[in-house]
Amino acid sequence: MTRNAVHGALVHLAVFTGIPVIRSMNIQETAYLLIDILKQYKRKEILRKSNPIIKAPSKQFSKRQSQKLFVLQNLPGIGTQKALRLLNLFKTIENVVNASIPELMKVHGIGPKLAGNIFDILHESF
């Protein structure tokens, strides 16, 4: 793999997925990285308004639905599918927060360990 290919991949991770992994050895390399960033932005024409965490291209969500999914996806072990299942069963985030461990386990893919972990995150003191 060429150095440019590696740089391109690192730029994509940092700029489009929000994972900052860009390193440079000197000023010239920093300049090349900045040029690569600009090229990728122009090529993709992506605004950072989109949420990189939500990945369900087959279904369109409203802004409010996307925000609810985003909140639940930040729970440990919860991706898009489990977040959707939680909202389909419990209807609101408030109901998810108030759910007991056995209630959380009713969601396909959430076992006792994950349900306990979610419950603890939602109910333990900071």
Describe the structure.
With 126 residues, this protein is mainly α. It folds into two domains: 3-44, no CATH class; 63-123, 5' to 3' exonuclease, C-terminal subdomain (DNA polymerase, domain 1), CATH 1.10.150.20. Helices cover 60% and strands 0% of the residues. The chain contains seven helices and no strands. The protein has helices spanning 3-16, 27-44, 63-73, 80-90, 93-98, 101-104, 112-123. α1 (3-16) crosses α2 (27-44) and α3 packs across α4. It is elongated, with a radius of gyration of 19 Å.
Percentage of β-strand residues: under 5%
Q: Please mark out the parts with pLDDT under 50 across 5 or more consecutive residues, or reply none.
A: none
Number of DSSP strand runs: 0
Give the CATH H-level superfamily of the largest domain: 5' to 3' exonuclease, C-terminal subdomain
Tally of discrete structural domains? 2
- CATH class identity of the largest domain: Mainly Alpha
Structural class: mainly alpha
Summarize the structure.
This protein is an all-alpha fold. The chain is built from 7 helices and no strands.
What layout of secondary structure does this protein have?
Layout (H helix, E strand, L loop, with lengths): L2 H14 L10 H18 L18 H11 L6 H11 L2 H6 L2 H4 L7 H12 L3
Helix pairs in contact: 1-2, 3-4
